[in-house]
Inverse folding.
């Protein structure tokens, strides 16, 4: 089954029901392109797997035991420092894009309230997991992309996060029936 924007919308709704309002308990990075976050709430614990692997990019709950490296990577240490005990307040999706943004209420080094975002872009070989601060500046990411790798956009620490270029796809929730019908007819010819 294709992991398209509509499927991701349904996944987002299922995930939101279970963990929005929950707190981050543990964070692991089983492989270079995967992050596993355990959330705890009154209803129990839920393990959420974020994958930016080119052949299997996804976001899903898992009960499977996943082996973790003995020494956590630097990104894992950073995520633990910033997101441990943070509360997941929202999961956002812009239309039917294959991008989810997990929004966390946390505390900074001084104990002041702050917001962090964890963006998962599910786009085949261009998939990525990106940690943002409250002003949408990139703190770090799974795959660092500079202009030698992409002429479209850079994804590097301290840069402002930019969405991938829009593909001007229709949104069945907001576009009119007439526009959808017209588009469908043009595709059929």
């Amino acid at each position: 089954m294709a992991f398209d924007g509509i499927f991701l919308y349904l996944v987002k709704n299922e995930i939101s029901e279970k963990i929005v309002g929950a707190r981050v308990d543990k964070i692991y990075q089983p492989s270079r392109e995967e992050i596993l976050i355990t959330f705890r709430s009154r209803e129990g614990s839920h393990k959420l797997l974020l994958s930016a692997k080119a052949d299997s990019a996804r976001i899903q709950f898992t009960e499977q035991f996943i082996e973790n490296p003995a020494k956590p990577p630097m990104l894992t240490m950073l995520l633990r420092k910033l997101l441990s005990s943070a509360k997941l307040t929202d999961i956002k999706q812009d239309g039917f894009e294959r991008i989810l943004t997990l929004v966390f209420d946390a505390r900074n080094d001084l104990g002041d309230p702050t917001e962090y975002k964890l963006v998962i872009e599910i786009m085949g070989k261009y998939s990525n997991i990106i940690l943002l601060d409250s002003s949408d500046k990139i703190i770090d990411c799974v795959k660092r992309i500079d202009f030698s790798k992409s002429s479209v956009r850079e994804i590097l620490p301290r840069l402002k996060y930019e969405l991938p270029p829009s593909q001007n796809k229709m949104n069945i929730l907001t576009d009119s029936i007439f526009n959808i019908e017209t588009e469908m007819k043009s595709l059929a010819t």
In short: The chain has one domain: 5-188.
